[in-house]
Write a structure and sequence with these properties.
30% strand, 5 strands, OB fold (Dihydrolipoamide Acetyltransferase, E2P), globular, 6% helix, mainly beta, five-stranded mixed beta barrel
Length: 115
């Protein structure tokens, strides 16, 4: 039996067959009515984060259970926050996390991004 290398089958080793595809560019998610953009200041623990929002409030925000395994949030990440109906100036839910390149795309569209 001939030696097949690390890949185990046809196509060779790791990473082959992916080189010619251009990177995917997704449509930029814009905050809806009642949502604000914020920057993560501090990870408090148990899916809770302190976030400085674009409307000059600092909110304690959490990730809802349905989204908890989809997002991996770190400090200085750009997120969309949906303030709560009660205690809206103090609390909120994180509904989206932007990727690294999205900050420049948001500024190009004229959306206020906190530092």
């Amino acid at each position: 039996m001939p030696f097949r290398g690390r890949g185990g089958g046809r196509g060779g080793g790791r990473g082959r067959g992916r080189g010619g595809r251009p990177p995917e560019v997704f449509e930029l998610k814009i905050p809806q009515v009642g949502e604000v953009i914020g920057v993560v200041v501090q990870a408090v623990g148990a899916s809770n984060f302190r976030i400085r929002c674009s409307d000059n409030f600092e909110r304690m925000c959490s990730i809802p259970g349905r989204l908890r395994r989809r997002f991996w949030i770190k400090e200085n990440d750009l997120v969309i926050v949906k303030p709560w109906v009660v205690q809206g100036n103090e609390r909120g839910d994180i509904v989206w996390r932007y990727s690294i390149g999205d900050r420049d795309r948001l500024k190009a569209k004229g959306i206020v991004v906190p530092n």
